[in-house]
From TrEMBL:
Main location: cytoplasm
NCBIfam families for this protein: L-threonylcarbamoyladenylate synthase (TIGR00057)
Any one Pfam family match given in the protein's UniProt record, by short name: Sua5_yciO_yrdC
Family matches, as Gene3D superfamilies: DHBP synthase (3.90.870.10)
Origin organism lineage: Bacteria, Candidatus Staskawicziibacteriota
Keywords assigned: ATP-binding, Cytoplasm, Nucleotide-binding, Nucleotidyltransferase, Transferase, tRNA processing
Highest taxon listed in the record's lineage: Bacteria
First-tier enzyme category under EC: transferase
Name of this chain's protein: L-threonylcarbamoyladenylate synthase
Reactions catalysed: L-threonine + hydrogencarbonate + ATP = L-threonylcarbamoyladenylate + diphosphate + H2O
Amino acid sequence: MKIIKPSLRAAAAAAALLKKGSVVICPTDTVYGFLADATNERAVDAIYKIKKRPRKKPLSLFVRNIAMAEEMAIINKQQRKMLKKFWPGEYTFILKRKPGIVLYGLDERTVAIRIPRYPFLSNLLKKIDRPLVQTSSNVSGQPPLQNIKDIIKIFSKETSIKAIIDGGDMKKGVPSKIINITSKLQKKIR
């Protein structure tokens, strides 16, 4: 496993690992997260195993921009306006999933999507040019880990994880806000 400081070179290295089906731990706008290629079933399964997360609980996606989000979700004018207001940033929005899209770890009818503001992740998404499943890097039911030394200690022996991007300790430690906008009535989930 590689422990890498965030940089353009590290983004390229992480993208290459993700394309090969590896899991990467990376800081986000909110907490450290597990990342995997959403088009790779084996990689997504690895996140569920590492996290000990029930398969019935869907994961969220990181995407590069609204155009990429529109490839996976049905987005109307009103929703688009809202997304432009809050993205990039700490908000994850649940939208209706487009039929026929083959991505793993997601709900059958909806998809939770976020465009991160964190510069390293923005660069990584440009390099990989595909959606990434993401979830906080912790064991399911435990609080999100904020200390990089704890993350390295707990997850360094996981063979599916090929890199940890060391962005230092997280100050907030609060996961993203999740808002369901699949209907006219918006519903805050978290």
